[in-house]
Amino acid sequence: MAFSKLLAPLVALLLLPLPAFAQASAPPAAEAANDLPIVTLDTGLGPIVIALDTVHAPVTAANFLRYVEEKRLDGTGFYRAMTIADGLGLIQGGTRNDPRRTLPGIAHEATSETGLRHTDGTISMARGAPGTASGDFFILIGDMPSLDAVEGEGDTAGFAAFGRVIEGMDVVRAIAARPTSPTLGEGVMRGQMLDPVVAIRAARVTDRPAP
Length: 211
What we know:
This protein has four helices and eight strands. It is an alpha+beta fold. The chain has one domain: Cyclophilin (Beta Barrel). β1 (about 40-45) and β2 (about 45-50) form a beta hairpin.
């Protein structure tokens, strides 16, 4: 999807020293706020438990909750795994623009506005142009500050982070390690498409895991 075209130059930045940008102070970690909604993704390799930051990214978190509550993610899957280096990459899943599941795009909540950051375990929205994020998302393995919004010309709005994995990063890493097809995918996504896809059997609002 168009996310791949935008991600390519951002990923290239990971190989260069990143300039310093004035950024808002990061908010408290999602897992420290016990009133945030919790969603469990029941995948073919185990559960991934996510705290949605409805406080700092209300539009994006509410969009994801709508997909969950309307069961639009049930029967979808994680279909992409990108590895940049050892311990650094992402997995991507969601509706893949299936018209039966996908809702209209939402307003973009840049990290420069929310104060959230693309760090290890962050869940964020895939998108083309700002305002097109809908039913596809990705989860980070390792820190990727190049996905945050920065000052500059062109599309520098980054991606909309809206929560964090609080349990199940072992599952995220297991999905990232699954086989990929050498031929599936277009552009930078070629060779990153999981084969087979790892199923998201269900996505539900659940209780916070016990300490």
